TrEMBL record:
Presence of the UniProt keyword Membrane in the record: yes
Region annotation (Disordered) ranges: 505-524
PANTHER family, per database record: CONJUGATIVE TRANSFER: DNA TRANSPORT
The protein's name: TraD/TraG TraM recognition site domain-containing protein
């Protein structure tokens, strides 16, 4: 005859004990609250004296303990009030438990295996503040240092209120898809808190970092806006001379390189025509710079290769070898010469546009922007260009490069570092600021007090501009990497998953047999954050990889949730409306236009 299983009896006992525990968890506090409520009601209504401690009697037979209380008062005091208090306590307990589970403040639950505060101590307040004192002589003896003077806020360590900051010797790359917080949580807060000069490249104006920070930065220094393609429809109140740094062969070559990078991808820059066109541009830029001409004169020389003016200038200034190279090209086979010159013309075609070239040629009653003066100020430079701006984006990249080189020279003159440091936010760098050797610059900019943050939409976008090797170099040289939501590249997501690593996961298994139930515990390794979880990172979070530290998950801090956001929002709205008004005015026909049309 089959015997009942012992495991079934065991399961029945488990259920009975659980039910008993739930009943006691409700009945015990409810009985105590009934006794307390009855006494309080009796005292409040003067309907008899308080009774001794009898919680069970108060719950089951309150009429015997307080016979002089009215039925309604007894119902309120011993039934409704205790039940309401118990429900409220249960709700509060549930909320507190959820807050503790999520890490406090309604934040998302911390992921097991990701960095804790001790794992990224160098990015925490105490260490960043101490580092700032050693890096910045101006802060060495300060009794109190504001957080914004110690480093750039990246966000809060997920599930905590601990701020994570990169110091003013770090260099960063941020890979964040559109609408993942790259502007609202990284670019804008960094610009607003920057203690020194700020450089921003962007392809947007209205409702972006330009409008959100313009007024705030205008209060701490002069704001310069270079807008050759009229993204913000700003008046031309500055001009910059790109030939100022082209009086050496290296400087002229760098300037030509910006036009090359803006026109062709990294994979095409090594072919004959690209290199030859870039060489011609560098030789003509050198001649124009030595003779202190405007950069637009180069277009005239490109149109007439037989013009001997650049040859004479180069010889007169001791660049005979360069002149010989230029002469060899000019006097070479016509089909080769014409191909080279046409390539160079295409690279520099934007200079034919007078609205663009006006920003880089001397203008009457318009102040010249000088990078050497800018890097010692608290001014702000906004460099705006459209995606695929060709030669226009070349000028943006050249100006940004010129500023960073001026900052490097100034740092060398002042003990090796800028104090205060300069912040360079290269937003949409792969579209509007293609500095070919940016990966190489990353190796020393941080040590000079020049803090670049290159913002890309994807890793592949960087590979397209700097090649696979160049993007790998940029990634490796960055001491801080921020990865936001929207990573759809499976290879890159898997790479990040492997960098985050594995952790031990406890696995419990239960088996049933005739002798009863047995439980065993084993450990297995599992990815902390698999590729699909990285792809599904929720908006408002980001991964942070810092040199020599475990990967951390961050809660981003968008500017519109910070103190003073209302004032900034109002200023941004005013600036956006002004852009719209300027655009409308520019494209609205006037009476004179109608008369001309007639």
């Amino acid at each position: 005859m089959p015997q009942p299983s012992t495991s079934s009896n065991s399961d029945g006992y488990d259920i009975a004990f659980r039910v008993l525990g739930i009943v006691l968890a409700i009945a015990v506090p409810l009985a105590n609250l009934a006794w307390l409520g009855g006494n309080l009601t009796a005292w409040a209504t003067d309907a008899g004296t308080s009774t001794s401690y009898q919680p069970v009697q108060a719950l089951l037979h309150p009429d015997q303990l307080w016979p002089h209380l009215g039925e309604t008062s007894r119902l309120l005091g011993t039934r409704i009030l205790p039940a309401a208090v118990l429900l409220a306590l249960a709700a509060i307990s549930a909320a507190l438990y959820k807050r503790h589970k999520d890490g406090g403040g309604g934040r998302r639950k911390r992921i097991d295996g990701m960095a804790k505060s001790k794992d990224i101590a160098p990015l925490m307040s105490k260490a960043v503040t101490a580092k700032a004192r050693s890096l910045r002589p101006s802060l060495k003896d300060a009794k109190r240092i504001d957080a914004q003077d110690t480093g750039i806020l990246l966000g809060n360590l997920q599930g905590t209120r601990h701020e994570v900051r990169m110091g003013y010797e770090d260099v960063a790359v941020a890979i964040m898809a559109p609408r993942s917080g790259k502007t609202t949580s990284l670019a804008i807060p960094s610009i607003l808190a920057a203690p020194g000069p700020v450089l921003l490249t962007s392809n947007k104006a209205a409702g972006d970092a330009f409008t959100a920070t313009y007024d705030a930065r205008a209060r701490v220094g002069q704001v310069w806006s270079m807008d050759p393609q009229q993204i913000a429809h700003t008046a031309r109140e500055m001009w910059w001379n790109p030939l100022a740094d082209a009086k050496t062969l290296d400087g002229a070559g760098r300037l030509a390189g910006h036009f090359l990078a803006a026109s062709v991808d990294a994979s095409q820059q090594g072919d004959f025509w690209s290199k030859a066109g870039s060489n011609i541009l560098s030789q003509l830029f050198l001649a124009a710079a030595l003779d202190e001409r405007a950069i637009t004169d180069v277009m005239s020389w490109l149109a007439f290769p037989a013009d001997r003016t650049p040859l004479d200038i180069l010889r007169d200034h001791g660049f005979a070898a360069v002149a010989a190279q230029l002469k060899g090209t000019v006097e070479g086979p016509p089909e080769t010469r014409d191909g080279i010159y046409e390539t160079a013309r295409q690279y520099a075609a934007a200079l034919l546009n007078t609205e663009i070239s006006a920003w880089v040629t001397p203008q009457k009653d318009v102040r010249e922007f000088k990078p050497a003066e800018f890097v010692t100020s608290t001014d702000t430079l906004f460099l705006l260009s459209k995606d695929g701006g060709g030669g226009a984006s070349a000028l943006i990249a050249a100006c940004a490069d010129s500023v960073m080189r001026a900052a490097t020279a100034q740092a060398e003159r002042t003990g090796g570092r800028l104090d205060p440091p300069m912040l360079a936010i290269l937003d949409e760098a792969a579209n509007v600021c293609k500095i070919s050797d940016l990966p190489d610059l990353y190796s020393h900019l941080g040590s000079r007090g020049i803090i670049p943050i290159t913002i890309l939409q994807s890793y592949r976008q960087g590979q397209k501009v700097w090649s696979d090797a160049g993007m790998d170099a940029l990634w490796s040289a960055s001491t801080v990497k921020v990865i936001g939501s929207g990573i759809d590249d499976p290879d890159f997501a898997d790479k990040l998953s492997r960098l985050i690593g594995d952790h031990d996961v406890e696995t419990t298994s239960t088996s049933h047999s005739e002798s009863g139930k047995s439980t065993s515990v084993s450990m297995r390794q599992e990815r902390i954050l698999p590729a699909d979880a990285i792809r599904a990172l929720p908006k408002g979070t980001a991964l942070c990889f810092a040199t020599g530290m475990r990967a951390a998950m961050l809660d981003l801090r968008p500017w519109y949730l910070e103190p003073g956001a209302e004032e900034l929002s109002a200023a941004s709205a005013r600036a956006s409306k002004a852009i719209t008004a300027r655009a409308v005015a520019k494209h609205t026909p006037t009476r004179t236009d109608f008369r001309k049309a007639a």
